[in-house]
Design a protein that fits this description.
With 812 residues, this protein is an alpha+beta fold. The strands form 3 sheets. The protein has a 6-stranded mixed β-barrel. Strand 1 and strand 2 form a beta hairpin. The longest helix has 37 residues, at 314-350. Mean pLDDT is 85; it is low at 401-411.
Length: 812
């Protein structure tokens, strides 16, 4: 009952000071709300289990080539079989590879993202169909693999959520498939874009060529009690044994990645950094409210002294003051939850689509528990120091009339200084981090992608069904007719195709290169991976890729034997550092199976295919109809350069596709400008959040600094009056207040810069193009904070110069 009485008393006190209560609650609400939003993202993306049975036991297996700096290489069918048979750490090893499927079912054909899987993959993940059944083992055999499982979204969109679709026939890539199952809405693999799964027919491949044909991504389930580290030791041993048995496996290792490492990629560090940033904002908010509490306790010093004189113990006084702080923190937490609910919706709406699981951000029991914990911690941080100081009143001084220690300006002065230094130093750290992120983003935005004027290029993916285009001449005929039609459209200046567009998705092929006349002291180690692309003659003109030597492909090159080849500038520098590569001959493939030597006819700029922040691999280009090494590809991306907004030509280009084949859909329609922007979406998102939090931190620190200086100036009215009576001029008073306050700010900035330098090492991997300890960034951050702080201090300092000494002394 005693605590209820104290709660009612605290509520009455807070009601009597509505301005103080509103400022304190709003300050805490913004800080707690920001922490709740970011924690909800951390919870959804990092902490919440992935939607698979015992997801912590699922791992990805990759081959590696240490000499060439590759830690993720795919498996061939024989290699997958070897690891299946030799791996004692796994309950099962499955595999898949991605693709785009042309689906025809009760309407217009549609290109759908899907994957081909070994029949045990979905059961290995613990997936259970909502309707129908899982794949049978025998459906992984050639000739029995024409069955399909549908994703819930595809089932709802194209089949009207009809359970009867199970056992029905649908046309996929021109072949008849039978639907055997529909997956539930919470199942997706390997990402949310995947909408169907079909069996991967595995025959008896075991030839040398089969062993070097690596295109499978392996997924395994660890046995109960086996750790990823133990599995890593085993797969390293297995890879070493295979390297001794097979010449094609020499130099090839193996790596184990947890499912979380694979799915989340490098998003974990930015989220943890953001969580740290909002944690700093909470500390700044706590310092602000603690300053308000100290000032309020100083004004209530006589009341507290009276209560102590009437018999209240120190514990009673501390408890009462902490109850007030707890009420403020809980009200701030409740309002913060409401702000967080709105902030989460905004986060999901504005978040880049390439951030995994961002759609799952929501308030659950973990988030509520976190908010409650933060609120309770805040009440301690806000109230403990003021409560400890206020609970030890000087009864003799406080109970006599007239001037008291509380009004002398010295009461709590040391604590005020600590609070000022703390919040300004924390703001300095966040501001410096935000400026590092901002400068890094500008550096990244300025990276040349290898092509010009992306705003005038339209792209779309076309995947020809194997049943209809199983022969190479049919594939080349389709694309030749399409390119002729598209080039004839008004407003089109060039059109070309390739299997992977820069900064887009698609199958990438990496090979080794052997240049005639180039001597390798260690052939395998000195041959970095080279990206191989099939293109049409006009592709580089459509992309706006600069030519650095020789010429582009022409239609005459389509009939040459051996085929002509174009290489990137980095490949030319590597293999022909002192000579002209044009006219030289190059072979692509592997040290165990080189193709024929092809003459180099041109050198082009390096295009960035993975991301702007990653240095591009060396590149070779051949014409698509010649099918060097990998055969003629049926899935290609069309690039169209236009004179105006490229999206205005989308319908016209689609019509040309349908004019060549009325059943052929297109997918992934975009512009190169949008692909370029999307490639930066994650970095831009983190930068915006960091900048926003830095702005909030700067405002909170400035307001807190202004409030503390205003309060201390008011408390020093008597002292200022005496100084002015003794001859001090207004400028002397201004210089005194500004000098003392700016000294504290300068100390804060130095501490903050030291902290920022230490923290910059933790975020070094997020920074591109500048040093984590970049002197210019640190100097500008310090200058900004000093100027803003000086502006916050100047007004109360200026007000101090207007004190009438006679009035001040008479009042005292």
């Amino acid at each position: 009952m005693e605590i209820l009485r104290e709660i009612r008393f605290a509520l009455r006190l807070l009601k009597r000071s509505p301005f103080y209560t509103a400022v304190a609650v709003l300050t805490l609400a913004f800080a707690i709300g920001a922490n709740t939003v970011i924690f909800s993202a951390v919870n959804a993306i990092l902490l919440r289990p992935l939607p698979y049975q015992e997801a912590d036991r699922i791992v990805y297996l990759w081959l590696s080539d240490v000499a060439r700096g590759i830690d993720k290489m795919q498996f061939s069918i024989p290699e997958l079989r070897d690891f299946r048979e030799s791996g004692q750490s796994f309950d099962g090893v499955a595999a898949y590879y991605g693709g785009t499927f042309s689906l025809a079912a009760g309407g217009q054909p549609e290109q759908v993202d899907g994957i081909r899987v070994t029949t045990d993959l979905i059961s290995l993940l613990g997936g259970k169909p909502l309707h129908g059944r899982n794949f049978l083992t025998e459906e992984g055999q050639p000739g029995r693999h024409r069955v399909v499982m549908l994703g819930h979204g595809l089932w709802s969109r194209r089949f009207n959520s009809d359970p009867g679709v199970v056992t029905q026939a649908v046309t996929i890539n021109g072949f008849t498939y039978t639907v055997v199952g529909v997956m539930p809405p919470d199942f997706y693999f390997p990402d949310r874009d995947t909408e169907l799964w079909v069996p991967l027919p595995i025959g008896s491949a075991n030839t040398t060529a089969d062993r070097t044909s690596r295109y499978l991504i392996a997924v395994a389930r660890l046995k109960q009690g086996v750790t990823p580290e133990q599995a890593q030791t085993e797969v390293t041993t297995v890879a070493g044994r295979l390297a001794q048995e097979y010449n094609e496996s020499k130099g090839v290792g193996a790596n184990v990645f947890t499912l979380q490492q694979q799915v989340l990629g490098d998003i974990g560090l930015p989220l943890k950094v953001l969580l740290g940033a909002v944690g700093f904002i909470l500390l700044i908010a706590c310092a602000n409210v603690a300053s308000l509490q100290l000032a309020r306790a100083a004004k209530r010093s006589k009341e507290i002294a009276v209560r102590a004189a009437l018999g209240a113990s120190r514990a009673d006084l501390i408890r009462q003051l902490l109850v007030e702080s707890a009420l403020l923190a809980l009200m701030g937490g409740a309002l913060g939850c409401l702000l967080a609910a709105w902030g989460m919706r905004l986060l999901v709406a504005l978040g880049p689509p390439n951030v995994p699981r961002i759609q799952e951000v929501s308030i659950d029991w973990r988030v509520l528990l976190f908010t409650l914990g933060v609120s309770l911690l805040t009440s301690l941080l806000v109230g403990l120091t003021p409560a400890l100081r206020a609970s030890r009143p000087n009864l003799q001084e406080e109970l006599k009339d007239g001037w008291s220690s509380a009004s002398s300006g010295r009461a709590g002065g040391g604590v005020f200084k600590v609070l000022i230094v703390s919040e300004v130093a924390l703001a300095m750290m966040i501001l410096t981090g935000a400026m590092l992120m901002g400068r890094s983003f500008l550096q990244l935005r300025g990276v040349y992608p290898g092509f010009n004027n992306p705003e005038n290029v339209l792209t779309m993916q076309i995947s020809l069904p194997a049943a209809k285009y199983g022969e190479d001449p049919k594939v080349t005929s389709f694309f030749k007719q399409l390119l002729e039609r598209v080039r004839a459209l008004p407003g089109v200046s060039a059109a070309g195709i390739t299997q992977v567009i820069p900064l887009g998705s698609g199958d990438r092929y990496y090979m080794a290169v052997d240049a005639e006349g180039h001597t390798d002291p260690n052939p395998r180690a000195s041959r970095p991976p080279v990206a191989y692309f099939q293109i049409s003659p006009d592709y580089f003109r459509a992309m706006g890729t600069p030519l650095h030597g020789g010429r582009f492909f022409t239609e005459q090159d389509e009939t040459l034997n051996p085929p002509s080849i174009i290489i990137s500038e980095s490949l030319a520098r590597h293999y022909f550092p002192e000579g002209n590569p044009v006219g030289q001959r190059i072979r692509v493939g592997s040290p165990d199976s080189w193709g024929e030597a092809m003459p180099v006819v041109g050198v082009v700029a390096d295009m960035r295919f993975e991301s702007l922040s990653k240095e591009p691999a060396m590149q070779v280009y051949t014409l698509y109809n010649q099918g060097v090494q990998v055969g003629v590809l049926r899935t290609m991306v069309l690039a169209v350069r236009t004179a105006s907004d490229p999206l205005n030509l989308t319908a016209a280009v689609r019509e040309q596709v349908l004019a060549v084949d009325k059943d052929q859909p297109v997918a992934k329609v975009s512009t190169m400008e949008n692909l370029l922007l999307d490639s930066l979406a994650q970095q831009r998102f983190v930068m915006y959040l960091f900048t926003g939090f830095a702005a909030v931190a700067l405002v909170l620190a400035t307001v807190g600094l202004y409030g503390v200086i205003s309060y201390t100036v008011a408390q020093r009215t008597h002292e200022i009056g005496i100084r002015m009576v003794l001859g001090a001029r207004p400028f002397d008073v201004l210089k005194l207040i500004m000098g003392q306050s700016m000294l504290l700010v300068l100390i804060s900035v130095v501490i903050g810069l030291a902290g920022a330098y230490a923290l910059s090492r933790l975020i070094a991997s997020l920074i591109y193009g500048i040093s984590p300890g970049d002197p210019l960034t640190f100097a500008v951050s310090a200058l900004v904070l000093l100027v803003v702080s000086a502006a916050a201090i100047y007004r109360p300092a200026r007000r101090a110069t207007k004190v009438d000494p006679l009035v001040a002394l008479r009042n005292e």
